[in-house]
Amino acid sequence: MEYRLKIKEEILPVEVETAGEGKIKANIGEAGFDVSYNAISDNRMHLVVNGQGINVYVADKKNGKDIFINGKSYFVQDADLLEQTKTRKKGLDADPTEVTPPMPAVVISVPVAQGDTVTKGQAVVIVSAMKMETTLTAPFDGIVTKVNVAEGDKVMPGDILVDIEKL
Amino acid sequence: MEYRLKIKEEILPVEVETAGEGKIKANIGEAGFDVSYNAISDNRMHLVVNGQGINVYVADKKNGKDIFINGKSYFVQDADLLEQTKTRKKGLDADPTEVTPPMPAVVISVPVAQGDTVTKGQAVVIVSAMKMETTLTAPFDGIVTKVNVAEGDKVMPGDILVDIEKL
Amino acid sequence: MFKKILIANRGEIALRVINTCRDMGVQTVAVYSDADKKAMHVLAADQAVYIGPSEPSRSYLHMDKIIAAARETGAEAIHPGYGFLAENAEFVEKCEKQGVVFIGPPSNVIRDLGDKITSRKIMLGSGVPVTPGLTSTEADTDIMIKEAEKVGYPILIKATAGGGGKGIRIVRSSGEMAEACSAASREAQNAFGNGKIYLEKFFEKARHIEFQVLADVFGNTIHLLERECSVQRRHQKIIEETPASGMTPELREKMGQAAVTAAKASGYVNAGTVEFLVDESDNFYFLEVNTRLQVEHPVTEMITGVDLVRLQLEIASGNKLTIDQKDIIGRGHAIECRIYAEDPEKDFFPSPGKIEFLKEPTGPGIRNDCGVYSGFEVPVDYDPILSKLIVHAQTRERAIAKMIKALKGYVILGVKTPVAFLIDVLTSNPFVNGDVYTNFIETHFSDWQPDISDADLARIAFVIDGMCGSRKVIKRISTTDEAATPWQTLGNWRQ
Amino acid sequence: MFKKILIANRGEIALRVINTCRDMGVQTVAVYSDADKKAMHVLAADQAVYIGPSEPSRSYLHMDKIIAAARETGAEAIHPGYGFLAENAEFVEKCEKQGVVFIGPPSNVIRDLGDKITSRKIMLGSGVPVTPGLTSTEADTDIMIKEAEKVGYPILIKATAGGGGKGIRIVRSSGEMAEACSAASREAQNAFGNGKIYLEKFFEKARHIEFQVLADVFGNTIHLLERECSVQRRHQKIIEETPASGMTPELREKMGQAAVTAAKASGYVNAGTVEFLVDESDNFYFLEVNTRLQVEHPVTEMITGVDLVRLQLEIASGNKLTIDQKDIIGRGHAIECRIYAEDPEKDFFPSPGKIEFLKEPTGPGIRNDCGVYSGFEVPVDYDPILSKLIVHAQTRERAIAKMIKALKGYVILGVKTPVAFLIDVLTSNPFVNGDVYTNFIETHFSDWQPDISDADLARIAFVIDGMCGSRKVIKRISTTDEAATPWQTLGNWRQ
């Protein structure tokens, strides 16, 4: 089996073959790994990798898994699976053109109104998450065609808070 | 709904009616209970019983549930369900007539052999669990018709270690 | 002693207070908002009272609701924790009027010390050295600029109310003043309901060292040694320890005396913290008094063997301090790391969401004051602190090693945390050498990225988890939809 | 210091040793049997070596396999924990011959002190008071009976080797002697590979008080205060604490001196424990020296602030003790409860099986040295100890309160444990008053039955759990069939 697995921006091929019960051999680039494994609980596995014991904790996330090893968390994704859903997301990832909060947040104020002309970088919505304020700005020069939120609203990433028509 | 629930040897009727989402009213004898509940995890519930918060931990067991409240564990069984399976178990519960260990154990020695005459109370098998020895004795006077285990065997409750024919 | 108290807080500090109450046989009443129906403090208390919607102003900051909850449940006293109403003199007055004991200083002391202007005046009057800066609040940007020029840039805009790193801005030139003032003021208004600000000198390289004090109603006042809290991000402490590196017995004596003087001069009662800045020549300047239990109080407990919450309750119920200054002896070294729901790779941006899995580190000398559990949805509405990990060992070197070990076993999945960041800080030469100043993180870790040396193992684990994957199934209680990872949907924003 | 050591043990004590090794940066090698493939010490160590079938004689007691595992993995030293090979002089000799450091005393010291006859002679020779009884081992029942009559009944049959309550029988009349001797001898043979026994006077009402000692190779020997271990069931400790109730500074001084004398007289090196019986007139008698780390060592660590495992490694690697007697100061009060897989309602009968759910208590002053986890199958082959819960507080009263609180939050489902029993003991007047003697449990708790005051709540919880029940599903890793509850299938047996 060959997987193509992505961590941060790096996609690496991982070659895996089973080697008896609870054992696999894996190759990533030049490096070879003899691994035996035991599932300890829903979220915990114990691996022995080239003789060294390693505890791994895993949680499933949307489009990938959070994997904790030795104090560090890795978000690992299957690049092949990702490519199948890529087109839908591409626009958003490539170049942000929408006013949307980076995390679940609460709207603190909306300093623009429908019809306002805004310049790129101008504050259009101020949101707060866990007591920290974030100013969302206009992604380009334009005219505010619609304000979709009001003070106190809870907003999620992906929600378009203000529609701006490019000038 | 009425349940008949058994703890140790005591079976009590428990009357339950739902009282809105996450709420029930229960009656056990004279005592009335207003309960609201929240499932916190697979094994944990938080109850508010007549205004007092109570944490309850539960594990499913064969024929019942282990329920932990405030440092104490209760093995709770549904008496109605138990009655359905009662006949199968009755003989064993009523009067032990078989040589079987009280817990998973390892056989340390078998001081009798096939053909031996034994008297009630005579040691027939010595088993050990967690370094503690237990002597299993003849339940009545009889003749050993078969020895089913040898030193070092792992044995479970229900295993008949020695067959004895009653005299 | 009280039979029952109400805890007007949530999260780890509510748990911390409940913990001591259980030791003392004091019944506890929790209060909670919509977001906290399944929060851990609700699960842990003997009783819990719903007080309203998630917005703090309609629940945890709603004084009348909280006092009503105390009266309805028969709670004789209210422990405010830190944050929320902990330093709100109006709330304390309301408690006093309604016959509910406030576990903390009297309202007038909170008012005096909570107003940084008044507190600076009190300290100046009693001979405690204070940082150069304004002795009055100021709303006019032009006047602020003039004052800043007197003191000399950089200066610090600070809210006269509150603490916890909110309402603070560094200003390095007059051009930045207007926006800094309005941002600080707005943040302060949101956090404390009071947008007043002033300025004081900003020390580029100073240590933040504070002294725990305790005072009973009979005028007995002692200090419980220092805490070093220089390692901060966004003006908020993230690593605290005691003893402070480089602290000499002489300086400790002098600063401890000053802390006791500060407490006495302000008529202090109950537990409080006198904060100082210490410059590179060991000159120290009074910063403020935190009139409450401090987030980092556990390190003091670890080395002194004292339970500060117990003493808070003792003092509040009118008992005399049973320990005096000579009983306070530090043993060993303690370090605390704050575990926030935040992303150290992205300027410590908050990371609310569901805790998919939590495994707390345990072991001799390890304490974890934790307010969350596996499956809990960390709300967007409140401070991002999840827990505080505290270690105690015989020496600083061993405490650092123990903390690193504990962090490596601290599994939190579902939200971002600074665990990997903290490990790198604790491993770094400047930290190991005790070269810690308030600019520590900007200086050494401003562009921190996690080392990904185990990325190969993570990839292998991903594959194996898939092979074992059928063990994982949808559970009935996991009904909440998983929030999207913020950084996948990153819009156009700036802080 | 060693770079890597092997831990020739399992369960909580293997974890305890690994824990300190991680603090010290020492690599660890675990060994394991068939029953322990998923045991926690295997998960925690850096490496793990399979050494054979579950039977102790073919794995954890198999000296050559263990030494071979150390040599193969490059472990420079072996920590034996307690039990298994910890007090086996032959094993220590084999280690010495193979160039592997044994973390403990030299073989000759273990042989001398492990033979209770020799050790009694050494103590008599150095002026340490010993219990009246035999000074030679004896296999002949008739001679035993004669000796018993000299000393006076009741007497205690004891294995000359070993400890941990194995191979011990009380004999109250000559008629019981034969069976008691053979049972004790057989139990000793099984446990220690040595069935030799002797007898000594049995004190109906005495305290078991022991002193922790430490000695380096340079002849520096100190004690680390006492532990009170009187509360025992089946001659095995279940609650230990320090300081001992009723201990005076004078008696502590005298007994501490005797402990140091005992250690020096035997040429002791490393950590050890000198056990005494103290009668009602404060006369004390040497019982034995445990030439290993003691199960109850954590209470000493809690009040002295010392890490005994670290010091064991330091001493074994040839370092000098860096603390002396005056550095040993007790602070506060510590209590340990042993959590066994056993049924206190049924004479503390073992209860192996699967841990269906485990929630460890946490909080300030709480330490849980634990060797199991949710989902672990507790094997039938080894000691029933699951964990040790330790608390530390400023006074005994507070420590008791904290322990009760911790026990009430210690959830172990799937196997029986003494948690409810321990709560009742700690709540009882005799315990609270410090009236603890080795007959404490027989005297006050022989017919203990759990109070079932929350049975109504349990019934209600049963119903509600059924209503929420769809959240629970069969998981892939729960493949092991649940063992039947022993008491449901109780056959005809006697102990």
Give the name of the CATH superfamily of the largest domain in chain C.
ATP-grasp fold, B domain
Strand content of chain A: over 45%
> Any low-confidence stretches of chain C, pLDDT <50, length ≥5?
473-495
Distance separating the two termini of chain C: 47 Å
Q: Main beta sheet of chain A: strand number and arrangement?
A: 8 strands, antiparallel, barrel
CATH topology of the largest domain in chain C: D-amino Acid Aminotransferase, Chain A, domain 1
Q: What Rg of chain C is obtained from the alpha carbons, in whole angstroms?
A: 22 Å
Topology of helices and strands:
The complex is a heterotetramer, with two copies of chain A (167 residues) and two copies of chain C (495 residues).
Chain A lengths: L1 E6 L2 E9 L4 E6 L2 E11 L2 E6 L2 E10 L2 E6 L2 E7 H6 L1 H9 L10 E5 L7 E2 L4 E7 L2 E6 L4 E6 L6 E2 L6 E5 L1
Antiparallel strand pairs in A: 1-2, 1-8, 2-3, 3-4, 4-5, 5-6, 6-7, 7-8, 9-11, 9-14, 10-13, 11-12, 13-15
Chain C lengths: L3 E4 L3 H14 L2 E7 L6 H5 L2 E6 L10 H11 L3 E3 L9 H10 L2 E2 L4 H8 L1 H11 L14 H11 L3 E5 L8 E4 L5 H16 L4 E5 L5 E9 L5 E13 L2 E7 L6 H17 L4 E9 L5 E7 L6 H8 L3 H9 L16 E8 L1 E2 L5 E2 L2 E2 L2 E3 L6 E5 L6 E2 L6 E9 L2 H13 L2 E3 L5 H9 L1 H4 L7 H6 L9 H13 L25 E2 L1
Parallel strand pairs in C: 1-2, 1-4, 2-3, 4-5
Antiparallel strand pairs in C: 6-7, 6-8, 9-10, 9-12, 10-11, 11-14, 12-13, 14-21, 15-16, 17-20, 18-22, 19-21
